[in-house]
Design a protein that fits this description.
about 375 residues; alpha/beta; 7-stranded mixed β-sheet; 14 helices; globular
């Protein structure tokens, strides 16, 4: 996150279960210990400040800083610094929804459904085999017999709401940029205006990052979040998933998405599903253990392997939706929001810097691939405070 966004997002800390995460508790303990040791060190050296050489201290500090940068800096860090100064709420030309022509679908006479799935934390693996590991179910013969499959990468910036602005609005923006807008001319708004029903699905609270406020501004009529059990039967007993981001399970939300898309209404539907359970720290055992993560699996890193099991499970869930015999013609786009925030340097290097992966499914008899111009977006008038 850019620093201003990071500070602004502190207001949402009470939505998180930080005390349930051993990782966050360890960081807190280290921070407290560091502050105590720093206080003791400063108190001690005050007695000997006349004997301290500032030149030696500065040389040592520069050496440590340079060594840290050489060992740990990645192209993502350079991009992050650049993004701090980039203009916000401006159109972009690089997004999976642009490359796959989702806007054109909304203007076609075929009136196909549209499902956009934003997969939490999914970057773009450098290795095609690693990428195939998580996309696997969507690349098999069953899907290939019904859909034309296309995949690629696109540049990301910022955190999850920036990913949403990128794919839903083709804007460089985040949740803060919508606060004083009456509307933004985004894909769901286009869909709504052309006769589609529109809905957004997420397993977490709609209070987080103010989605209950700005999602209607970009065209979502219905919001299915934790507050209304993602549209599932109120009497049904549902499990919760996640550690810090404790919410519904993606597997349950997928049932709601599937029911929405296969409903009997004559109107075509535009559905957006933001997944949750691959948000770190990941809870082991929530999804089928398909990748042998006890020893890190093919990735050589347990944390990344656990996240990949969640991504793989999303592919299985989307496959079930895609093959539902009651599903009318539907274009499906899966795309990552941002690079996975991994601690392990070796695991981070398994991903393409600054890129997220996407996969697109469309019926072969639908429109043919073509080059689509960037969507021109119209921002709403600012409201008066």
């Amino acid at each position: 996150m850019p620093l201003p966004m990071l500070l602004d997002s502190m207001q949402f800390l009470d939505e998180l279960n930080l005390s349930q995460s051993a990782t966050y508790l360890a960081f807190l303990a280290i921070l407290v210990a560091s502050l105590v040791l720093t206080y003791k060190m400063v108190t001690s050296i005050k007695k000997h400040r006349n004997n301290i050489s500032l030149v030696s201290f500065l040389v040592f500090a520069i050496f440590c800083g340079s060594l840290d940068h050489w060992l740990n800096a990645t192209p993502q860090e350079a991009m992050k610094i650049k993004m701090q100064f980039a203009e916000s709420f401006v159109p972009i030309k690089d997004a999976a929804s642009l490359k796959t022509g989702i806007a054109q679908v909304l203007q076609d006479d075929q009136r196909s459904n549209v499902l956009i799935v934003m997969v939490e934390g999914l970057g773009a693996f450098s290795s095609p085999e690693h990428q195939k590991t998580v996309w696997g179910p969507l690349l098999d013969e069953e899907i290939g017999a019904m859909y034309a499959i296309k995949q690629g990468t696109t540049q990301y910036f910022g955190s999850t709401t920036s990913g949403e602005a990128r794919e839903l609005c083709n804007l460089r923006a985040d949740y803060r940029d919508f606060r004083h807008k009456k509307f933004a001319d985004c894909l769901p708004k286009w869909a709504l205006e052309t006769g589609y029903k529109t809905a957004a699905f997420h397993a977490f609270t709609n209070e987080f990052f103010e989605r209950k406020d700005w999602f209607p501004k970009i065209g979502f009529e219905e919001l299915f979040f934790l507050e209304n059990r993602a549209g599932l039967n109120p009497s049904e007993l549902l499990s919760l998933c996640g550690i810090t981001f404790r919410g519904l399970c993606d597997a349950d939300v997928s049932r709601s998405v599937e029911a929405y898309l296969t409903g009997e209404e004559a109107q075509p539907k535009f559905a957006y599903w933001l997944t949750l359970n691959s948000h770190k720290p990941v809870m082991p055992g929530e999804v089928p253990e398909r990748l042998g993560c006890e020893d890190g699996g093919v990735f050589g890193d347990q944390e990344l392997c656990r996240m990949s099991e969640q991504w793989l499970n999303i592919s299985h869930l989307v496959k079930e939706i895609a093959l539902n015999e009651n599903l009318r013609e539907t274009e499906i786009l899966l795309v990552g929001d941002h690079h996975p925030p991994l601690f392990n340097r070796k695991a981070r290097k398994l991903f393409e810097p600054g890129q997220v992966a996407w996969l697109h499914l469309k019926r072969p008899n639908s429109r043919q691939p073509e080059q689509f111009a960037a969507v021109g977006l119209r921002s709403g008038d600012e409201t008066k405070n």
